[in-house]
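User: quick one - fold this with uridine-5'-diphosphate-xylopyranose bound?
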Amino acid sequence: MEKDKVPHVVILPLPLSGHVKPMLTLAELLCDAGFLITFVNSDYNHDRLERVMDIPAFYNRSPGFRFVSISDGLPLDEPRLGPIIFQLFFNTRTVSKPLFRELLISLRQSTKRSPPTCIIADGLMCFAIDVAEELGVPIITFPTHGSHGMWTIMHTSNLIEEGEVPFQEESDMDKPITSIPGMESLLRRRDLPGNCRLEVENPLMEFIISEASAMKRASTLILNTFEELEAPIIVQLGSFFDKVYTIGPLHALLKTRIKDSSQSVSSCGSLRKEDSSCMEWLNSQPLKSVIYVSFGSVIELSRDQLIEFWHGLVNSRKPFLWVVTQDLVEGNEELGQISEELEQWTKEKGYMVSWAPQEEVLAHPSVGGFLTHSGWNSTLESIFEGVPMICWPQVADQQVNGRCVSKLWRVGFDMKDTCDRFIIEKMVRDLMEDKREEIIRSTNEIARMARGSVKENGSSHCNLERLIEDLRLMSLTN
Ligand code: UDX
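Assistant: Sure. Structure tokens for the protein plus uridine-5'-diphosphate-xylopyranose:
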């Protein structure tokens, strides 16, 4: 009888779409393995999800899956981007923690579904570890960053102890960082996560340091990466956790394991309505000719930065597909007069959308490059499709990702800390033509490894099998 006990996994993402999407993908993979899933959204994100997907139809296809939602403490009409995100982080402890505790207690008492047998929580939602310990439910941490980003964030307090942080932005930003084991010859000051540019006393620093430390109380770690990409750092992470499961790129693993992934809920995970008209436009463009431009879901540009990018793209004379979200420009500032040349060239050679089906775009044969903010999801998606990148990182792990892309994996160029039309134009030409040879071989090679990792017998495929098995065992001993 006990052998038939169905694992019930409660999944708690940080309530930002870049974190929700990989968590949803994992949730779907576990549901496909026959598990019961309770996915904890914020009210804000759940409302957005309902606008882009038919949830009752999804429940019919996946009866073991249920969404629940709790408040993130911010007003429902306030976009979650820019500095307000810091407030969202702080609210996790004061607002989300008691709500999550209540939720878990009610799930345990419910007679409709068996009680939770494990929690999988984002690495920045460590209050869940306190709740799990108090209520005796096993917990696994899943920071949705890559291993290098994660490892760097975990060393924030060491960087302070060693005097490498803080530093002034006017100082020598190319000074090497030497106190992160395994990354001694990789990072410079400018490659450290965005928060390292803050004063040590800044509450965000305190938040990052304490989350990174609390995360280690979970004995098991899940990462959206693949062994072949980040092996040395994954080994280092193994010294802090009893078990580490690298199961990425998750979006690709889902496609390998679930036949009709077009129906999947994680394809709606970025919580915005996609404009697929760009696919038709891409069909009309020559092979590998288009540079795709997107800065993800949380960063904002000033009007001047947007104009510099626009000039740089137009002056490169390459066709471009650009995601310009409604809230991309700080405070929704008016753009004012746009020069005729920009308008004209964009009409002839460019295409703008408010949100693209990015995974499909990157897989399209006309796309030859990606100008990105180096969010981890975008980085992995581009790596998987063998599309080389220009990195323009701004916050969090993005700076580290950009450095790995350019220096370690050699799958792109790093443009961090500049935003100038001439540099942008040159970088685009380098990526698409002049210096493409320098990176295209490694880009193809790493894409080949990424594809191998999600195939049957590939590293991530096997690691997911192990995780599923371990979650099953956990449910028996619980
Ligand atoms: C955030 C942080 O920026 C990032 O540093 C962290 O690693 C994860 O959380 P975000 O800014 O949204 O995420 O960037 P990213 O991680 O790249 O995720 C964006 C996701 O949205 C990708 O999966 C991408 O496919 C999707 N997307 C983006 C679209 O589907 N359409 C678009 O037009 C743009």
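One thing worth noting: DSSP finds 19 helices and 13 strands in the chain.
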